[in-house]
Amino acid sequence: MAPKKVLFVSQEVSPYLPDTSMSVLGRDIPQGIHGKEFEVRSFTPKYGCINERRNQLHEVIRLSGMNLIIDDSDHPLIIKVATLLPSRMQVYFIDNDDYFQPLPEKGLETDLLPADNDERIMFFTMGVAETVKKLRWQPAVIHCSGWVSALTPLYLRRRYSDDPIFRDSKIVYALQPEKFEGTLDPRFAEKLRMSDFSEEDIAALGSDPVDFATLNHLAIDYADAVIQVTGDVDPVLVEYAKASGKPFLAYEGEEDRVDRYTEFYRSLLGEEDD
After folding, report:
1. Strands 248-249, 225-228: parallel, antiparallel or unpaired by DSSP?
2. Cβ(184)–Cβ(159) below 8 Å
3. Cis-peptide, bond into residue 15, ω within 30° of zero
4. What does 179-221 look like in DSSP terms, one character per residue?
5. For residue 87, what are the contacts with CB-CB under 8 A and spacing of at least 6?
6. What's residue 254's pLDDT?
7. What angle do CA 110, 115, 120 make, to 5 degrees?
8. Which residue, among 214, 213, 220, 208, has the nearest Cα to 234 in the 3D structure?
9. d(CA 1, CA 151)
10. pTM (two decimals)
11. Angle at 204 (CA atoms; ends 199, 209), nearest 5 degrees
12. β-pair partners for 68
C-alpha cells in the first residue's frame, strides 16, 4: 500500500531557525512520522534570518513566479527547498521580498514588523496551497501548526473547496502557546473579502480588530480536528476546541508523542491501529 501523504504547514522549523519548543516540534514530528507509513512534506515561511547557504536552500524555478494578489497588489511567489537530514524529508520555504526580508537585528518579521502580519499570513497560506497544487501532491492529512498557519483551514475549506487536491484532506490545527501581541491590521477582514471570502465565511472574526484568540477560533472552526501541543496552551482555546465537538488530542507529555499523533491521523482517516 502506498504511504499516506501528510502535509505540515509550520510556523517554525529547526534547524533553519534557533531551537525553540515550536521549531523543534516543527522538525521532530514530521521527521518522526516520515517513512514507510507516511510520506511527509513540510512548508514554512522563508524568514529573512534563515541562512540560505548554510542550510542549502535553493529556488525551485518551476514552482516560483506566480503573482499572489493581496489588497489589490501583486506579490511574486518564490519557492525554495531544502532536504532535512537524516530523513531526507523535503522542506519548502515560502518567500517574497515584501514580507520576508533580511533585517538589521536578529529576529523574525512576525515580531519585528507586526504591522504586515495580516498580509504575511495571507501570502503564506496562499503560497502553500498554490505550490501543493503545482506539485500535484494530494495530502491525506494537513497538519497546521502555529498562528501563522491559522488561515489554512479557512482557505482550504472555502477558497480551495472544489480543488481535488484538497477536497478529501483532513485538516488538523495544532494549538501552540506562542502568541502575537495586540491585533492584526483593522482592514484584515476587508482584505479577506477582497480575496473572495464572503461575510458568512469570516463571520467569526466579528467587527473588532482580530486578536490571537479570534484568529485561533477561526482556525478551529474550519479544521476537522485539533491537537493541543503543550500543557501551557491558553485554556480558553482548549475549551473552545473541546466544545466544538471535533476530534481533539490533548497534551499528555512528550513521551511517545509521535506515536500518539500517528494514531490520531489514522483515526481521522478511518483506519484501525495495527
Report:
1. parallel
2. no
3. yes
4. ---SB--TTHHHHHHHTT--TTTTGGG-SSPPBHHHHHHHHHH
5. 31, 34, 35
6. 87
7. 55
8. 213
9. 32
10. 0.96
11. 90
12. 75
Cell numbers given for 64:
516560483
What φ, ψ does residue 147 adopt, rounded to 5°? -65, -25
Between the two ends of the chain, the Cα-to-Cα distance in Å is 14
- pLDDT, average across residues 89-114: 90
Query: What is the per-residue pLDDT for 272?
Result: 60
Question: DSSP code of 100?
Answer: S
DSSP state of 137: -
* 144 grid coordinates: 497546521
Cα dihedral sign, 21-24-30-31: negative
Burial zone of 1 (CB within 10 Å; 0-12 exposed, 13-18 middle, 19+ buried) = exposed
In this prediction, residue 101 carries a pLDDT of 87
